[in-house]
Amino acid sequence: METLCRAASPLSCINRQFSELVSKKRSQTMVKKTREAAKSTSRGYDRSVHLGNAGEHLVMAHLLALGYQAFMADRGNPAFDISVVCEHRHSLIRVKSTSTNSVVWTRKKSGATFLDLREDGDYCCIVDLRKGVRDSRIYIIPTMSVQAAIDEGRRYWTSSPKKDGTQRVDTKGQRLWLNSRTDRHAYEGFETKWHEYLDAWNQLS
Fold first, then answer.
1. Half-sphere exposure of 133 (CA within 13 A, CB side)
2. Distances from the Cα of 23 to the Cαs of 20, 30, 86, 153, 178, in angstroms?
3. Closest among 56, 103, 107, 52 to 83, alpha carbons compared
């Protein structure tokens, strides 16, 4: 028996070392994957921030070139991005940039999509950067109209069942599509529905 135990000892040692090596390798792999995921998330966040900044500066450039007095809001302002003054009229702008064929808004914890929503002098500038800065398209839309479109799109989405017949669950986000499909869903066709607001800077005068 003692002989068998002694013979088995080197094998047990090898198995133990192998298990430790496998465990270490798995741990290193997990750390690598975690770091790669973090880098990917960071790149996505940076891309989103850069896109938003590009849209805000593009709107500012248009406003200043048109002769408006325009000022960037403080970075801590959770509601508005730009303040515009034209003689006795004061307007506040929320800039939303996209490089895809849709725009997504997310409700806050309070349930509101837009903080400090106002009936007058409150606008959303949707900056469509699908074709780059030079061929960008900017829609200047009263925020109340955007809110109405979001609400209608959400009602339509939640009222229509899934393919399996079950009821859809309401979510915090609402997507509106910048395409010409006005004959399908309520949340589509806003390239056509909002055409009147394309480059409609005169609303700020």
1. 12
2. 5, 11, 67, 50, 50
3. 56
Helices (H), the chain: 2-65, 143-159, 190-193
Burial class (CB in 10 A: 0-12, 13-18, 19+), 200: middle
Two structure tokens written together for 201: 């800077």
Nearest to 93 by CA among 139, 150, 131, 47: 139
Residue type for position 98? T
Beta-carbon contacts of residue 136 (< 8 Å; ≥ 6 apart):
58, 127, 128, 129
**pLDDT exceeds cutoff 80 at 61:** yes
Contact partners, residue 91, CB within 8 Å, separation at least 6: 83, 84, 85, 121, 122, 123, 203, 204
Please answer whether residues 93 and 59 qualify as being in contact, where contact means their C-beta atoms are separated by less than 8 angstroms. yes
| Size of the chain, expressed as the number of residues it contains | 205
Instruction: Give me 46's structure tokens.
Output: 């940076």
Six token digits for residue 120: 């007058």
For residue range 66-92, what is the model confidence (pLDDT) as tens digits? Answer: 999 999 998 789 999 999 999 999 999
